[in-house]
Model the fold of this input.
Amino acid sequence: MAFIFYDTETTGADRSFDQILQFAAALTDDDLNVIDSFEIRCRLLPHIVPSPGAMVVTGVRVDQLFDLQTPSHYEMCRRVHEVLTAWSPATVVGYNSISFDEELLRRAFYSSLLPIYLTNTGGNSRLDILPLAIAAHTFAPEGFNWPVNEKGRTTFKLDRLAPANGFEHSNAHDALADVYATIHIARLIKDRAPVVWESAMASRSRALATQYVELNPVFVATRLRFGLCSSFLVTAIGTNPDNSGEVFLLDLRQDPTTLLAMTDEELAAHIATKPRPVSSLKINASPLFLPIESVGAQAPGYELGLEEIACRAELVRSDEGLRRRLVSVVLQGRTPFPESPHLEEQIYGSFYSRSDQSRLDEFFETDWPRRLELSGQFEDRRLRGLSRRLVYIEAPHVMPARMRADYARAIAARIHSRTESTGRWTTLEEAIEDAHEMLTDVPPNHEAILREHLARLTAWREEAGLILHGPNTIVIS
Done:
């Protein structure tokens, strides 16, 4: 199967309230030889304030953010969706992608009314090289040079790891350069840590991961946090009845006969202890499962002996009642998250109705005046908000003057300064404060670009303040 390696450069680190500014990807064959590549940049959205720190790191200049010759965010998203679809089916690969780039890409598609699950539907699967690098450090460290940060700890940052292992990465934080750096690390893992690579291949899709946990009564599950790889000898006990993409695993250091003797109250208290007897993983997020034969000796619980481990797994897998009780107790102990009031964070709400999907199809085929009409006809309020905002950004001239003015004031109110209702997004006030603080110790080679952004942010805040002097504003999210 082919691989699609990709990377993004963004306005900041918030997955919901920042945006992609540059997208790059490379298509490779099964041996990771590059077949084709693609990159694109876009303009800044009017309701996004870029982080000065991010702009300094990526080297993005002010004129790039506002250049009308550069594609809009919507145009970029449509082009990216088109290219990735043409390259599919493939395994879609990034570096720290599943927790960051993937989420930003999904939200970019969401805000552009495009299908959001491109990377794991239509025969596509996903892979993240950062967790594999961390696992390689644990299970096959001798094959790599591991850079150390200022605190004396191993660092897995791509701009440090790739050069330490032979990659010329002078253009780090350019999306296409980072794509090639990721391919380089992937090749090394494939060649020098084959157990890690082959295990990742065996669970890179939901179907493959599901098959793996069903067929293997005992395996090593990994959990990667803060640059550390923890491993556990586990057996699968079931999935979330409300979310089949979540699988529950029992740590086999737990004696199932002891669990069987517990009341539900005792079981609930025991489940809450640390290390967690029962853990959960997103089975559709490319979890890393490893064979006990290869790495099990490094996992806690191996000292029990293979025979005892196998007996415990068999007892659990043969007792459906125990497995159901364990899953039920875990779910009962969870606190539901309230729905966010912000449109950007409602991405994983209900699926759109058939009639709304039909309107979406028409939306992409028609002109902007008709799109404005359609924006008021969607049943789903998310689609109404997203489509109307898209019309304002892409074709404000088709809107009535009052509607345009309302949007301009709403955006100005959102980005001008901190308020009690301000969410996680960066405001102009915060960005200016950050830029001034950075000037106290910015490296000389970065000072010019930082001052350039500071001047633009200051002028932008004045412009937003002038807009706010008009009639009462509305608030959009």
User: Anything to note?
Assistant: Residues 3-194 form a domain with the Nucleotidyltransferase; domain 5 fold (CATH 3.30.420.10). The chain has three domains: 3-194, 213-332, 345-467. The chain has 20 helices and ten strands.
